[in-house]
Design a protein that fits this description.
Helix content: 55-70%
Largest sheet: 3 strands, antiparallel
Strand content: 5-15%
Length: about 130
């Protein structure tokens, strides 16, 4: 999966946080302090071309109608794919990534139970 440039990532973070379809006008308003309307268009087109966004319904905004956009990838999926791609390219070992997360102080027994369950499911699939 392609990685996102800084402005594209900022826009995707907004989509993930808002969790609703957004129009160019919505985005321009929400990002007015950090990017111009033209930059919003540029990033929207790049995100559409890269497959991170899809067009949604048209909505009325003032006297005109405009398209809305929704993400095709969740935040979790994007960041997990970045790690998986780095591991596939040999830049990172998945064992080291898992070890790092297991060392985090916020890991709970419930999280460990869920991870163990998913590992067992994967092991069964690989063995069958």
């Amino acid at each position: 999966m392609r990685s996102l440039k800084k402005g594209e990532r900022e826009m995707m973070e907004l989509f993930w946080r808002e969790n609703r379809p957004l129009s160019h006008g919505d985005l321009s308003e929400l990002l007015k302090d950090t990017m111009s309307r033209n930059t919003v268009y540029l990033h929207l087109n790049n995100l559409l071309d890269k497959g991170f966004l899809q067009t949604g319904l048209s909505v009325r905004r003032g006297r005109t109608y405009g398209r809305t956009f929704t993400p095709t990838v969740s935040k979790t999926e994007y960041y997990a794919r970045q790690v998986a791609d780095a591991a596939r390219d040999g830049d990172v070992l998945l064992e080291d990534v898992v070890s790092y997360f297991l060392g985090d102080e916020h890991i709970t027994t419930a999280t460990l139970d869920e991870i163990e369950k998913r590992i067992q499911e994967k092991r069964r699939k690989l063995e069958s």
